[in-house]
Design brief:
heterodimer, A: 898 residues, 22-stranded antiparallel barrel, elongated, B: 363 residues, mainly beta, 3 domains, 10-stranded mixed beta sheet, 25 strands
């Protein structure tokens, strides 16, 4: 290289553009020869001298025939798209000049990389002597070193040329590189970069296993996000990074997936005790939550304080609030798709945490190395045991109990390189006892098998078969009134999903089927003195089937289009007795005209729904894009609740003879832009949604153990619209997310008479109409081991109905309430802070521990959960505010990893 | 660790705060409220017609309805007029006696031309209450602590054999109070407080000394309390028989137990509309402080305006029969001594709106 530089300077002064030698024509004899040999030939036969460094052209063979072409043409052609140029001096010397900047750059990158203690692997593909000039193709796959899972959207970059590609949905990449020496850099968010000192002379393949970084602090090297908001083709999709959850302030030492979801744009919740979350003006029953493919009905422990999933057991969580792909259906507003982590195939490792109320432990590892692995996760509270041990004057406390646990197990077995079998089991159990003798218990259980198989490099598929169960019981032990009330649903599930790639088209298609067996309610006396009479509602069996097809393709370079359709079919089966009511009159028990009887297995009613799903992305530049989408989704089961916050004992009612399925149409459009090389990712998204055939309850409805729910529920429609603005900074010492959502959500229930209408048929705000929601979460790295993080949340108070007049009836004061939901409770806002001390980040350490000290509700605001009206003793109803958390709650927890 | 958990739970159960808050509401103009009905086969029957008040107003000051014609009409079309000699209180003629098996409804012709009617309902007899009894319940571990919230739970047993579907239970309680109006003092500026007995105490200031000159007219009173929470029962749900149904709670304090507490439990037969009404009222009262408070409902009574569907009318016209049973809880039923009540130097008749110096016959 130095010789070339010197040659450049020395001969510059003598440069004469003598073109004569360059005009010489060739005869075709050059074909097939080594270039260096041919240069020697030319030197012998002509008055020409070539100056070059031998290893620049050591492997270059002249492949083509240049008969009749000039030397100039020949040299230009052969050195095209390489870094070699030529110059003629004094009309006989042809000097080859290699652009030094590329080599200098390469050397510099190599030395920087070695300073950063990066592993630099030398890879040689092809042999220099048998190699080609021009570009060659390198293909390969990027995977997670431990789990062998493909990493989608990883960056494969030729650093010295600043060109790159990203891996596709199977983790594969194809990149065209000029033959020669390069620095290849493979990156994926949260994983350690891999640097290759690559010498490539022919087409080849390279598999890149990446290992997860032990620390997220990467000051020097830029990390890219897996699904960048701009380049991901769907609006309304977020991939939740589980490492981020662990650094957020916790509530009583437990970090929480559902709380993380509640801080995403477009998502809100009704208050501290609310189970679940509301997405874009939809109810909590309109979110599909899948745990390794099986539905989960109740996603929170203890009335919403903790989510029912142990985040240590989770690998990846995708949340769709718009642009829902055709493979998902059955819930109208959002999809939370949770994938469980697999055990490490190479060595055993685990982590856990100890908190004030609960602790958790996860361990996973190989059973047969590189073939079979297992991972088990446990979490349990011990507040109950502690409460009983406490002696106190407050008998109320001793008599109440709060207890929960959850456990998850996953076994993975690689049958072959193309086939994998997995088994997942999950159980979550809750118990909550009030001092007034009532005990609530509920649980979720499931088990599922999944078989994944790649038929060839274009077609892959998976088969999922499993069963889930959700049920609750309420027990009252007061002797005169002792009863046990129960509800349950069991749902065996079968799914088949396939993906097929050809060209730049990706096809996804498949079918799913879920059979729901509901036990809608039973009550039994639980003591001999109890006066309660046993009652059992008829079981309801329903079958939900769907087939779907979707295609994603690139069009005209800048457009990425996703077209999908889902066709869902639903049937409800006997054993059933269906009441028929007189048409034209409000449905009342007194207007029953007939009872239809269906035997077990008879089809009572069927519904079908065609659900188009469409989304398109137009990229102005790799940093800016606009995305639009439309989807229609049908939902065949409804959560019936007549309190503002859904209790775990509310009822799921499937569609049947009287209740039609609900469905929603949503359009959304959003603008996405990244600034400063993805340091700041921002977007603005607008949405408009109409929901049809929603169920709302009649005033004063009795919903439990009601065998004629159709007389207490009314059909209506919903309307939701709004926009979301979000800014995410994911690099540097200070990073965080800030988002603001404006969203309105209305209902309209208009029946044939005023009894069957709510608010006289006029539009009213839904129970979770919260127009302004603002979230700001950030964390700051004080140093490599110390972090400070915080969340701030603000949302408008939810609507309530308030009394406007009062009167006395037989000495009893009675309040008359306004039309539904015309007033609001005061706004909710809360600040949490956490201070995190991580263990030192030596890679080879056996045990790594982290302390987290956090405070929930730092300024102790008494956020009202509800406002209720009570007689203040003088016969007048006064509003009282009830807050669940009225003070700042500190907690300390310790998490460890081995 | 324990204390921290305890702290957490206390925050949740007790520190979860309930405090009053002001809420701006638009008050609605007073609509007619109907309160009363047929109470058995013996008249006279009373129907109160008042207007509803704003939610922050005093319910005692509710304005009465004037200029209305009110009738009870039976299933043969016979009209019985009710007269409001006391404004707002419409009373039937003593000669009108309702009969079992006949149905009745109320008709109001208001001065503005609106006509309201109730749904006709059949008068059904009701069974006696089998028994009423009480049990003392101590609420804290230390019986003699100052914060004593122990009291009596009052239960009833009843078996319903007549052909009725719904019943309502209510109660009336009477207790005696004593005040010392002769001990009243007044602030006389530089002289400090000087005695100033109330005239009704029978004392007068003679030569600067309070001296009894006659009997006290306002020292002993009897206060009546009413059940504020409706209790209704669905006969089918209970299989026609209730036992140990808690109907009332009387705190064991010296305010209530100067000597004894009299409680009369009333059982009435009611229609489905009236049952639904009271159930909603009960939900409204009890649901308030529960975590899963049902969103409150508009409670409609059993009346509606027949010539203007938008006009509102609240309340109930009940057609029912009542049977009562009473018991007396004696002061000696409390297993310990009560702290003496604070002495009050006011006129006992102003203790509460239901305080009267007339001694009940059975006392």
């Amino acid at each position: 290289m130095k010789v070339a530089l010197i040659s450049l300077f020395v001969f510059y002064g003598l440069a004469v553009s003598g073109q004569n030698i360059l005009g010489k024509k060739l005869d075709g004899s050059e074909q097939g020869k080594l270039l260096s040999d041919y240069f020697e030939e030319l030197e012998k036969s002509d008055t020409v001298k070539f100056f070059y460094l031998p290893d620049w052209i050591a492997n270059t063979t002249i492949e083509q025939n240049y008969a009749g072409k000039t030397i100039e043409y020949f040299l230009e052609d052969i050195f095209r798209s390489t870094s070699i140029e030529f110059q003629v001096v004094s009309d006989y010397a042809i000097i080859l000049i290699k652009d030094p900047s590329q080599s200098i750059l390469r050397d510099r990158l190599l030395s920087t990389a070695s300073k950063e203690l990066k592993k630099i692997e030398p890879i040689i593909i092809g042999s220099p002597s048998a190699g080609r000039v021009g570009r060659v193709t390198l293909t390969g796959g990027v995977t997670d070193e431990k789990s062998k899972d493909p990493l989608v959207g990883a960056s494969v970059i030729i650093q010295d040329l600043d060109e790159g590609v990203t891996t596709d949905i199977d983790g594969n990449f194809t990149i065209s590189i000029p033959s020669g020496q390069h620095i290849l850099n493979v990156r994926y968010f949260n994983y350690e970069d891999k640097v290759y000192d690559l010498q490539i002379y022919e087409d080849g393949s390279l598999n890149v296993p990446l290992s997860e970084t032990p620390t997220l602090l990467e000051e020097v090297v830029v990390t890219d996000k897996a699904f960048s908001n701009v380049m991901g083709n769907r609006g309304g999709q977020t991939t939740i990074k589980l490492a981020e959850i662990k650094r957020m302030p916790s509530f009583m030492g437990q970090v929480d997936l559902i709380r993380q979801v509640q801080t995403l744009p477009g998502v809100t919740s009704v208050g501290e005790v609310a189970t679940g979350f509301n997405v874009r003006g939809g109810g909590v029953d309109q979110n599909l939550v899948l745990y390794d493919g099986i539905n989960v009905f109740n996603i929170s422990h203890v009335f919403g304080f903790f989510s029912a999933f142990n985040s240590d057991a989770l690998k990846e969580v995708s949340f769709y609030r718009g642009g829902i792909p055709a493979e998902f259906g059955g819930r109208v507003s959002s999809v939370l798709n949770i994938s469980v982590k697999e055990g490490n195939f190479e060595k055993w490792e685990g982590n856990g945490g100890i908190g004030i109320i609960a602790s958790n432990f996860t361990a996973g590892g190989p059973i047969v190395k590189d073939k079979t692995s297992a991972i088990i996760s446990l979490r349990s509270s011990y507040s109950d045991w502690l409460l009983k041990k406490v002696k106190t004057n407050y008998q109320d406390i001793q008599n109440s109990s709060v207890a929960f646990y959850d456990a998850s197990l996953k076994l993975s077995h690689l049958i072959s390189n193309d086939t994998k079998l997995q088994f997942t089991a999950y159980i979550s159990q809750d118990k909550f006892g009030l001092p007034t003798d009532t005990v609530y218990r509920w649980h979720n259980r499931m088990g599922v098998f999944r078989l994944d198989h790649n038929f060839n490099d274009k077609l892959g598929g998976s088969l999922t078969a499993g069963v889930g169960n959700y049920s609750y019981t309420v027990e009252d032990e007061e002797p005169g009134n002792a009863f046990e009330l129960g509800f349950g649903v069991t749902y065996p599930t079968l799914k088949a999903d396939f993906n097929y790639n050809f060209g730049n088209h990706k096809l996804n298609f498949g079918a799913n089927s879920v059979y729901y067996r509901y036990n809608p309610g039973s009550i039994n006396p639980s003591s001999d003195e109890s006066l309660v009479r046993p009652q059992q509602l008829n079981k309801q069996n329903t079958l939900e089937n769907a087939i779907y097809f979707s295609e994603n393709f690139q069009w005209q370079e800048r457009f990425n289009i996703d077209l999908g359709v889902r066709y869902s079919m639903y049937s409800s089966y006997g054993l059933a007795n269906v009441y028929v009511y007189e048409p034209g009159l409000p449905k009342e028990v007194t207007s029953i005209t007939d009872t239809l009887s269906f035997a077990k297995g008879d089809k009572v009613k069927s519904y079908t729904g065609l659900e188009p799903r469409f989304s398109v992305r137009y990229s102005f530049t790799p940093e800016a894009s606009v995305k639009a989408g439309f989807n229609r989704i049908y939902q065949y089961t409804h959560l019936i609740s007549n309190s503002a916050a859904v209790a775990p004992i509310d009822i799921w009612q499937p569609s049947n003879y009287h209740f039609q399925p609900q469905y929603a149409d949503q359009v959304s459009i959003g603008f996405f832009k990244d600034f400063k090389e993805k340091t700041y990712e921002t977007f603005v998204e607008f949405y408009y949604k109409k929901i049809y055939d929603l169920l709302d309850f009649k005033d004063g409805a009795q919903l439990i153990l009601n065998d004629h729910l159709e007389t207490d529920l009314l059909r209506g429609n919903g309307l939701a619209y709004g926009f979301e603005i979000s800014i995410v900074k994911s690099k540097g010492r200070f990073n965080g997310t800030m988002n603001y959502t404006y969203s309105r959500s209305f209902r309209e229930t208009k029946g044939i008479t005023s009894i069957e209408s709510i608010n006289n048929g006029d539009q009213y705000p839904s129970n979770f109409d919260q127009p302004h929601v603002f979230n700001f979460n950030w964390k700051y790295n004080i140093s490599k081991r110390y972090f400070i993080s915080s969340n701030f949340t603000y949302h408008t108070g939810r609507p309530i109905s308030a009394p406007t007049t009062a009167y006395l009836i037989d000495n009893v004061p009675v309040a008359n309430f306004s039309l539904r939901n015309q007033y609001r409770i005061p706004d909710y806002h809360r600040l949490d802070l956490a201070f995190i001390i991580e263990g030192n980040h030596k890679r080879k350490k056996f045990w790594d521990g982290t302390w987290t000290i956090s405070v929930y509700n730092v300024y102790g605001r008494k956020n009202p959960y509800t406002i209720f009206f009570a007689d203040n003793g003088k016969g007048v109803l006064r509003p009282y505010r009830m807050a669940i958390i009225g003070a700042a709650i500190p907690s300390v927890s310790y998490t460890f990893k081995f | 660790m324990k204390n921290l958990t305890l702290g957490f739970v206390i925050f949740l159960l007790i520190g979860s705060c309930i405090d009053p808050i002001t809420l701006k509401v638009d008050s609605e103009e007073g609509a007619i409220v109907v309160d009363g009905g047929i109470t058995g086969i013996e008249g006279p029957y009373v129907v109160n017609l008042f207007r509803s008040v704003g939610v922050y107003s005093d319910l005692e000051k509710r304005p009465p309805v004037t200029g209305a014609f009110v009738y009870i009409i039976d299933d043969e079309g016979t009209r019985y007029r009710l007269k409001d000699d006391v404004v707002g209180v419409f009373v039937s003629d003593p000669s009108f006696k309702a009969e079992y098996g006949k149905s009745y409804y109320l008709r109001i012709e208001a001065f503005d031309g609106k006509v309201y009617e109730s749904k006709p309902d059949v008068l059904r007899p009701v069974d006696d209450v089998d028994s009423v009894y009480f049990e003392f319940e101590d609420k804290v571990d230390e019986p003699n602590s100052v914060e004593n919230n122990a009291g009596f739970n009052v239960y009833l047993d009843a078996s319903i054999e007549s052909d009725i579907d719904y019943v309502r239970w209510s109660w009336v309680g009477i207790h005696e109070i004593q005040t010392f109006p002769e001990k009243r003092t007044i602030n006389a500026g530089e002289a400090g407080r000087v005695p100033d007995p109330l005239p009704c105490s029978g004392y007068q200031m003679i030569n600067g000394i309070p001296t009894p000159i006659g009997p006290c007219l306002c020292c002993s009173c009897w206060v009546t309390q009413y059940s504020r929470t409706p209790e209704v029962g669905d006969v089918k749900f209970y299989g026609g028989k209730v036992s140990r149904y808690k109907i009332a709670y009387v705190p064991a304090t010296s305010d209530f137990f100067l000597s004894k507490y009299y409680i009369q439990v009333q059982q009435s037969s009611i229609s489905k509309e009236v049952y639904d009404y009271w159930k909603l009222v009960k939900v409204q009262k009890e649901g308030g402080s529960s975590l899963f408070q049902p969103t409150s409902a508009k409670i409609k009574g059993n009346l509606k305006c027949i010539n203007d569907p938008n006009a509102e009318i609240f309340g109930l016209f009940t057609v029912s029969t009542s049977k009562t049973k009473s018991i007396i809880i004696d002061k000696n039923d409390i297993p310990y001594d009560l702290l003496p009540a604070k002495e009050s130097a006011s006129d006992c008749r102003f203790y509460s709106k239901n305080s009267s110096s007339v001694k009940p016959d059975f006392w």
